[in-house]
Write a structure and sequence with these properties.
By secondary structure, the protein is of the alpha+beta class. Helix content is 29%, strand content 31%. Pfam families: CusF_Ec.
Length: 144
């Protein structure tokens, strides 16, 4: 009978590890399936140019040296989930007068250059009361 209780204690010690392992395997499986279906933004399965897509998001900043904006954008159905990302501006396109935290509508597209490169063009300021559909984790990460 004493051996049985020792076995129970061993199972109780490894049970949290088994739960963590199962959760990790499920997460990897779901991510692999999304990438396979082309939902990732850099999936090798879909190396074609994409867009333009009409997108709404929050302007987070501009890196003049790199010629890119940082945006937190809503999901683009069948293309990518909502996320924060750096987007280049097309050559010759000036950035409108925007402040970090401004809500904007814009066109987003990709080109195949040295890999897939995503661009934002035609940025337009949205009314401040515009409600964006961003997941809670992204909202928290960008302070929205």
């Amino acid at each position: 009978m004493g051996g049985f209780h020792a076995w129970d204690r061993q199972i109780m010690k490894i049970k949290p590890l088994l739960v963590l392992l199962a959760a990790t395997m499920l997460s990897v499986s779901v991510q692999a399936e999304q990438d396979h279906q082309g939902h990732g933004h850099d999936s090798e399965a879909s190396q074609e140019a994409s867009g333009p897509h009409e997108v709404r998001g929050i302007f987070l900043g501009f890196d003049e040296g790199e010629g890119r904006v940082t945006m937190a954008h809503e999901a683009i159905p069948d293309v990518m989930m909502a996320m924060r990302m750096h987007l280049r501006l097309p050559e010759g396109q000036a950035l409108p007068a925007l402040e970090p935290g401004d809500k904007v509508a814009f066109r987003m597209f990709s080109r195949i250059e040295a890999g897939r490169v995503w661009y934002a063009s035609d940025l337009e300021l949205l009314p401040s009361q515009t409600e964006l559909e961003l997941p809670p984790q992204l909202r928290e990460a960008v302070g929205y």
